[in-house]
Amino acid sequence: MGADSPLDAYSQIVTRVAAELTPKVASLRVSQSGSRWQGESLGSAVAYTTDGFLLTNAHVVGKATGGTALFSDGTSSPFTVVGADPLSDLAVVRAGAGAPPPAQLGEADDLIVGQLVVAVGSPLGLAGSVTAGVVSALGRSLPTRSGAAGRLIEDVIQTDASLNPGNSGGALADSRARVVGINTAVAGIGLGLAVPINATTRKIISALMQYGRVRRAYLGIVSSPTPLPASLHKRVGGKEGLRVAELVPDGPAARAGLRVGDILVSAGGKPVTTAQDLQRLMFSDAIGKPLEITVLRNGALVDVIAQPSELATA
User: Fold this and answer.
1) Looking at 27, 31, 44, 59, which residue is catalytic?
2) Owning domain of residue 51
């Protein structure tokens, strides 16, 4: 087979990505006090900064406060859990001396179905576990929960790059070795899911690094996408809105006068076409502040003012 064959080109890309990222993905041994799994490797983590911060999954660290990070060169370092956010399944830990240089982050919102991706993990005993495949679907939702609070991680990446046990918290990268997702779960035989790296998750990571947690606002609605009349497309800046299917009794949306059947078309002056559009607004700076919402009700556009409350996660 010629050196310029498609298979050789594919192999060269995967090899290059593996060589670039394997040293930047650590294996985590998480100390779970009182657990029979104490001292057992539970996942992987991706180097994020030059001073030892690593990204992983919240479910990898659980309620632990620390553990040991093992690197591909055979060195190890204790780490502490800086912060974990079960509602996005992201966590930040910080290792001591010997942590590798950071991986380059990409942009998951630029991915397309069929694009080549490479999953790099570091399960204990399988350092440098690498699998390759394609983006098989985008826009998937992954239910998460923290205490009484539930949420959907929107725009989850589905890939057919197989995930080995212990790959959770590892990197999902594009052909240029840019990390576009943090591998989080096996969706089925030959299918895996990854939390996307995008503007929303960058904001979550920043909050975890600064405060150790993510404060979120909430409106108290359950919604689903629905088409808008063609006559409104230009006026509202989108072809879809979010139909209110359910309201939390006495929640911020209910108190503002929203009704079941209303179709949200904008919030905070920005079009709302997906649940993620709304979730992007529901961070700490929205808590307790007026939020102008425009809805389609009985064929007319109606403006209401809601005041999001803080989402309790414990």
Assistant:
1) 59
2) 6-95
pLDDT grade, residue 35 (50/70/90)?
very low
Residue tagged active-site, from 88, 146, 168, 266: 168
pTM of the complete model = 0.79
- Identify whether 266 is a catalytic site residue: no
Q: Are residues 51 and 113 in the same domain?
A: no
Q: Is residue 44 flagged as an active site residue?
A: no
Active site residue 51: no
In a domain, 1, yes or no: no
**pLDDT tens per residue, range 43-79:** 999 999 999 999 999 999 988 999 999 998 888 999 9
- Tell me which of 85, 89, 155, 160 is the catalytic residue: 89
For the chain, report the end-to-end CA distance as a whole number of angstroms. Answer: 59
The structure tokens listed for 104 are: 């380059």
Q: Please report whether residue 224 resides in a domain.
A: yes
Residues 69 and 90 in one domain: yes
pLDDT given for residue 185 in this prediction: 75
Query: In 3-state terms, the chain is what percent helix, strand and coil (to 5)?
Result: 20, 45, 40
